[in-house]
Amino acid sequence: MSEKQNIANEKKYNKWIVTLSITIPLVVAVLFGIKIPNVAPLSFLPPIYAAINGVTAVILISAVFQIKKGNRKYHERLMKTAILCSVLFLLMYIAYHMTSDSTKFGGQGTIKYVYYTVLISHIILSIVVIPFVLITYVRAITNNFERHKKIARITFPLWLYVAVSGVVVYIMISPYY
Predict the structure, then answer these.
(1) Whose CA is closest to 111, among 40, 168, 44?
(2) Cα distance between residue 20 and residue 104, in whole Å
(3) pTM over 0.90
(4) How many CB atoms neighbour CB 121 within 10 A?
(5) Coil, strand, or helix at residue 44?
(6) What is the separation of C-alpha 98 from the centre of its chain, rounded to a whole number of angstroms?
(7) Distance CA 136, CA 145 (A)
(8) What is the DSSP letter of 105?
């Protein structure tokens, strides 16, 4: 398939990429503010979704090693698993916040600034990474591997930071649950 055909195939997905990149953060923001009445808090979820973030980080690193070894099929499976893990994280995160009050960070001094720096960068980059992941994925499934590689070099560190910083945020706030 020619480069032009690959790009034409990619363009078929652009509406979905834009729609999902806008809709996901908006829906999360709206649902974050909704509390389901008369439902037991799902307070057991934070360590689970933090662990999923950790697993996602390991999967992303493993996927990079696999593609560098030339194992495209295993890389593809790992990347689909990483996407699935991110979706599971998001669903659990929403469920927790719809049934539980947010935990306030209790640290004081410098650690408070460190926590909020990590938290805010995690939140912002978790939104920013959505279109990057979607575009990277579309370029792979449309066999546009040269363009896939170019954007993957940006997507990987962003997504890895989001996964790792999610674990760090959990570890830092867990004493206050």
Answers:
(1) 168
(2) 30
(3) yes
(4) 14
(5) coil
(6) 19
(7) 9
(8) P
CATH superfamily of 3-176: Cytochrome c oxidase, subunit III, four-helix bundle (1.20.120.80)
Tallying the residues shown for the chain, one arrives at: 177
**pLDDT tens for the chain, residues 1 to 177:** 677 776 777 888 999 999 999 999 999 999 988 999 889 999 999 999 999 999 999 999 999 999 999 999 999 999 999 999 999 999 999 999 999 998 999 999 999 999 999 999 999 999 999 999 999 999 999 999 999 999 999 999 999 999 999 999 999 999 998
Taking the domains of the chain in order of start, what are their residue ranges?
Answer: 3-176
Cα dihedral 74, 170, 133, 26 in deg (nearest 10): 150
Given a contact cutoff of 8 angstroms between Cβ atoms, the answer to whether 24 and 133 are in contact is: no
Rounded CA gap, 147 and 166, in Å?
Answer: 28
